[in-house]
Amino acid sequence: MSAAIHTWTAAGMPVHPYQQEACDTVCATCAAPIKYGIPLAQIETPTTANHADYFRFGSKHVCPACAWLYAAGKGRPGNYIATPGRMEYTVISLDSVVTDKRPWVDALADVAAMPPETPVAGVMTTDVKPRLWPRVRLATVGRFGLYVHASEYDVSEWREFGLHACIDLIGKMTAPLAAGYSKASLYHGLLRDYARSTRCLGSAWEWESQLAPHRSEPHFIPALIAAGVKKESKRDVKPTAGPYINPQPAATGGHQPNQAQPGLF
Ligand SMILES: [Zn+2]
């Protein structure tokens, strides 16, 4: 089964707006063998990008699953993960106002609890604009992977990584993020944030020693993308040149965080 068909099936095989016809070929996008397909002429629009990448195998048709995904349009499906019977749209920020989307960290924890042979497919991206779903491969919980796209880290690839290692590392990232370190500092090294790290060198060294062994591992970037703290848990997010001020509880408005979701860099 292709990742696209797995995803479409997980979503409940929703209808697509195209007319299909009999054919005997493979899907031009996901290579699944098909007896009925949607002609590429219906899928192609003047703005369809990556024709050469996504219309392949000498085929002139796509399967209903890929047709549905093409019909979703730009920016969709964005971040998602599909397991049997469920396609879930996810978000990076823990402070999302979108009530029907959970943060990655919650979705990953649920998936990690599934049996290792459970099939899974998904995209984790910091930019929902590029069409990434055709690049997804079918993975399992035990041999996990996602298409990971984060131009901030120069990553856009299908990436296999350990799901449990990723979740463990997200946990290790929480304390330094809550202490106000940026994701860029987690990526490059906490000591680059001189003002913050020198204020409490003990914890800076401790956290840095926990993160450092993972930086070259495949699960590091996915963990960094998914990691976060809720605004109210964040302390001292503003890089201060002045003296250290004990942050007030967010509700009092005494110490306003300077941004909702800082850029990854
Ligand atoms: Zn297909």
Write a structural description:
The chain is an alpha+beta fold. The protein has two domains: 3-71, no CATH class; 74-240 and 247-265, no CATH class. 30% of the residues lie in helices and 18% in strands. The protein has ten helices and ten strands. It has helices at residues 3-10, 40-43, 51-54, 64-71, 104-112, 163-178, 183-188, 194-199, 201-211, 220-226, and strands at 21-26, 33-39, 61-62, 80-83, 86-91, 102-103, 119-125, 139-140, 145-150, 155-160. Strands 4, 5, 6, 7, 8, 9 and 10 form a seven-stranded mixed β-sheet that branches. A hairpin with a 2-residue loop joins strand 4 and strand 5. The longest helix is centred in the middle third of the chain and has 16 residues, at 163-178. The chain is elongated. The chain starts with a helix and ends in a 39-residue tail after the last helix. Mean pLDDT is 87; it is low at 239-263. The structure holds zinc ion (ZN). The site of zinc ion (ZN) has 10 residues, from helix 4.
